[in-house]
Amino acid sequence: MRRPTAGIVLALLLAFGAAAMLPAQPVVSEKQDIAIFALGYYGWSIPTQALASIDGQIQKVFSDLGRFTILGVSQRLSAGGLDRFIDIMKQAKQKTFVMPEKYQFGEAFLTEAEFNRLVGAFIVVAPVVTEFNSFYNTKNLQWETSLKTNITFIDVASGGAVIAIKSVSSTGTDKQNQFKSISSAIDSIPGQLQYEIRSIPQFQINTRILSATGSKVRLQLGANMGIRKGDEYAIIQKATVEGFDDSREAGLIVIADVGQEVSTGEVLYSGMKLGKDTQLREIPRVGTELDLYLHSVGDVFVPGLRMTASRGFYGFRPLASIQIPVSLMSNYLVWNYYYVEIIPINVLVGGEFAINMGRLSVAPNASVGLSYYHVTSTFISTDTDFLSHIGAQAGGRVSYLFNRNTRAFVDLGIEYWLAMTNFFGNESYGGAMFGAGVTFKL
Description:
Elements: H1 6-21, E1 32-38, H2 48-65, E2 68-76, H3 79-92, E3 102-105, E4 108-111, H4 112-119, E5 123-137, E6 142-155, E7 161-174, H5 178-187, H6 189-198, E8 206-213, E9 216-220, E10 232-237, E11 240-241, E12 244-245, E13 248-258, E14 262-270, E15 279-283, E16 288-297, E17 300-309, E18 316-323, E19 330-335, E20 338-353, E21 355-357, E22 360-377, E23 382-403, E24 406-419, E25 429-441
Parallel strand pairs: 1-2, 1-5
Antiparallel strand pairs: 3-4, 5-6, 6-7, 8-9, 8-15, 9-14, 10-13, 10-15, 11-12, 13-14, 16-17, 16-25, 17-18, 18-20, 19-20, 20-22, 21-22, 22-23, 23-24, 24-25
Helix pairs in contact: 2-5, 2-6
């Protein structure tokens, strides 16, 4: 047998050395196969119509996320049946495992073919009701429903290991109909569940930059994987130390536009040069920004809280605010030690148009609203709310992004509230508005 020449050996060494020096290739997520059991409710009395509605909502959440290929399973597991199912999954990977003709998990039965179909899925999802209570509240004169569901994610490929257990709690009310109160509780499941799923590392989207021009980047994946406007992605600076991964976040991108397979992002900040194949990783968020602020309107001090929708929006974003004009709070002694306490509350809805310039942003905004007095009387032991003002505000906000989760801002504008009653000397107020606050990105 002929020995390799020195030239061939040198070429091989150079090839191996060059391969070792190549940067790690970016990771790009693909759709994952999941099988979803029907909702287990062993021990709870839940109307059949409600069960079907919950099943539909859960299936819809996974479908809307766009990152899964879904296999539905009609059987329902109890809590004990779920534990048995996980044990069988683990045993199925063993060589000594003997496959029975039927599997029983509590009250659920699976044939061999059905079980094999589940084993072929990458992830099995098993939702089980852990709390359910629906009753008529005679004090509040309404139907009230509370529902808690635990959702277990099982990694079949790793022998039945539990990836995560997420708990979703919801409530609903209705003045006349019990099922409507149940439906109200069910309707609040999707928003919570979407975030809980996206917060699981195995389900977060990894992608890469296709091209970068100034503050704009084009990235792989779009609506085909459920990416939405307003989603945020961390720029990942990949590195290794002695063979160990030392990758870390080096910047932030917000999605400005979404195509079917390619999305456009805007760079808010970056500590590294961006180019083709730069790694990006999804930052899971609820999709709301929470502002805490203090405004001065004329000679009235107004602390407030504002919620702005961020996920699904870019540029124009809807908002809602609640304010308490503390300067207008009052209490009156009406007789002996009895008193009346008055708390004014402003509620506004509107929108803003955010213009990002890196960490700095400018957002003109406008809102309209109603103000009411919350009156508490110890004399007749009752609380009463009634309309006191109608109002509007318009202005602009300048904010600075300190880190991926927090902004500080200054507000300037005008605000006016027109009095609708002369209750206890109630008057109109308004004028120039000035304030400041902090934003938390949830």
